[in-house]
Q: What sequence folds into this?
């Protein structure tokens, strides 16, 4: 087996390394082709503009959209805020027939939940949808929750903690039938499952480059043009990005985003096969070596790289601490990993606080090797056994 000087990385849903091929595309735009893409009076600006537009087309192709429907942002958090708050404010400001209602599952990313809650000050109501024990949203529950004044349904395509894939095409058909916008946070879906905004009737879609082997600091919001989606911009400025997102587009980051999207379009099938095999190898190895384990969320409707697994009789914080020099895993979303509260996603699918605290998230990625999987199995198995033994000893001492 290969010797590792750094911990094995199994947290690809938190972020991904920049693919070397992506870095190669980006580098010239930091040094040689450094122009501002909004400078229209000279060749430096034109060069950067053309590169940004080429990247826009590559991102659009990945989700079967038109290039002019892609709005570059700083990442999925901004995109989600733009979609939820932008739609909410637009409809709330209409003088007649104001739509002030949204439908959102309780397992959405924090930035979607908090964006919707922030709209309460302008009179927007939210129906919070529960999910089944497997983490899946029932399309019929979405249909039942839609009202005459519903402006938006927001359902993330792939959950950031348990990796389940939502039935978005069914939900999209329902939203289109009732004339309601459908937004999806697809940050965890790009490169991991097929995305077709036309076939799935998606009106707004959020992306983040660093979840798909691109650079941190850039994302996108897909905004459908036909039928046209209307939303109010979050902030004012020079009117870049079709007036929806003012500010200079960072050309190097946009180029990297486009390059990462191109790799997704070209290599998804090969990636999926390899990652699925490694994920199954990791899960099987852990189940064979560690008793009393449970997988959180649907194992069938799930991206190939994700395992959210609980080890009864352990604590996720203790397990991560025991593995800190060996394997990098997480207890859930990187955005809430500092919290000692049990995951709201795991509680929503019916886990007790104890079961949620005993659960960790692992994710296989493009750079994961077979050796790393095998080393991780052994390290995690040993750490769980040690934690359980320590816990048992402490219990015996208390009883003694």
A:
């Amino acid at each position: 087996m290969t010797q590792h000087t750094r911990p094995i990385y199994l947290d690809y849903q938190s972020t991904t390394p920049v693919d070397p091929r992506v870095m190669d595309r980006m580098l010239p735009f930091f040094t040689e082709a450094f122009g501002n893409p909004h400078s229209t009076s000279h060749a430096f600006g034109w060069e950067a503009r053309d590169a940004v537009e080429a990247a826009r087309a590559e991102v659009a192709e990945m989700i079967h959209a038109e290039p002019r429907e892609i709005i570059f942002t700083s990442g999925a958090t901004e995109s989600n805020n733009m979609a939820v708050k932008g739609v909410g404010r637009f409809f709330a400001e209409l003088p007649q027939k104001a739509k002030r209602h949204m439908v959102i599952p309780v397992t959405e990313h924090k930035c979607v939940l908090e964006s919707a809650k922030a709209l309460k000050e302008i009179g927007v109501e939210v129906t919070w949808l529960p999910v089944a024990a497997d983490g899946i949203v029932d399309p019929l529950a979405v249909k039942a929750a839609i009202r005459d004044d519903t402006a938006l349904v927001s359902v993330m395509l792939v959950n950031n903690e348990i990796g389940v894939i939502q039935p978005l095409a069914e939900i999209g058909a329902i939203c289109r039938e009732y004339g309601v916008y459908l937004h999806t946070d697809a940050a965890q879906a790009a490169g991991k499952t097929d995305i077709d905004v036309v076939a799935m009737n998606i009106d707004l879609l959020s992306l983040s480059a660093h979840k798909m082997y691109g650079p941190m600091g850039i994302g996108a919001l897909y905004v459908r043009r036909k039928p046209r989606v209307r939303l109010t911009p979050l902030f004012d400025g020079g009117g870049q990005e079709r007036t929806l997102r003012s500010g200079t587009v960072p050309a190097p980051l946009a180029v990297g985003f486009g390059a990462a999207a191109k790799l997704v379009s070209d290599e998804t099938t090969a990636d999926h096969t390899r990652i699925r095999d490694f994920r199954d190898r990791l899960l099987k190895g852990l189940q064979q070596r560690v008793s009393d384990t449970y997988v959180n969320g649907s194992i069938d409707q799930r991206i190939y790289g994700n395992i959210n697994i609980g080890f009864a009789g352990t604590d996720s914080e203790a397990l991560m601490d025991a593995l800190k020099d060996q394997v990098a895993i997480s207890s859930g979303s990187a955005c809430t990993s500092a919290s000692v509260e049990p995951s709201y996603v795991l509680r929503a699918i019916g886990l007790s606080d104890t079961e949620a605290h005993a659960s960790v998230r692992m994710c296989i990625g493009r750079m994961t090797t077979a050796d790393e999987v095998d080393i991780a199995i052994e390290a995690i198995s040993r750490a769980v056994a040690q934690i359980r033994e320590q816990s048992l000893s402490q219990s015996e001492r208390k009883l003694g």
Summary: The CA atoms of residues 62 and 391 lie 48 Å apart.
